[in-house]
Structures are given as structure tokens and as C-alpha cells.
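Predict structure. Chain length: 82.
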Amino acid sequence: MNKLLRLGGWAFLGLVLLWVVVEIVSVVLGVVSWLVSTLVSILVVAVLLYLAYLLVSRFLGGNGGAKSRSRSRSREREKIYE
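Prediction complete.
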């Protein structure tokens, strides 16, 4: 009977240690999962912002300011020659 109680105690201790290990692993995996989801969310937002920038720059003509400056200079030159 004494040997049976000792074996049962070791089995109970093993189950408790296994439970503790499983809890630690679940916490670590939870933190890793949170980090990965946060990084993926930031990456998706960055890609969407970049695509929005490309669309806006394409529809607005990109360097429209430089073109308008050169046109205004050419108009000034035309006025001088008139």
C-alpha cells in the first residue's frame, strides 16, 4: 500500500508539473500570437497607405507643381516678348 501511495504521489506531481508547463507554453504562445498579429496589422496598414499614396499621386498628376511653375515661367517670357 505504501508503494502504491508513493507511485500515486509521483503521478500527481507529474500531472501538476505537466499542467504548469502547458500553462507557461500557452502564455508564451499567446504573447507570440499577439506580436505577430500586431506586426501583420501594421504591415497591412502600411501597404494600404502606400497604395492610397500611389492612387492619389496618379490622379493628381504627381509633380503637378513643377509643371505649373514651368508654365508660369514660359507665360512670363511670352509676356516679355510681347
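Summary: Residues 74 and 80 are 10 Å apart (CA to CA).
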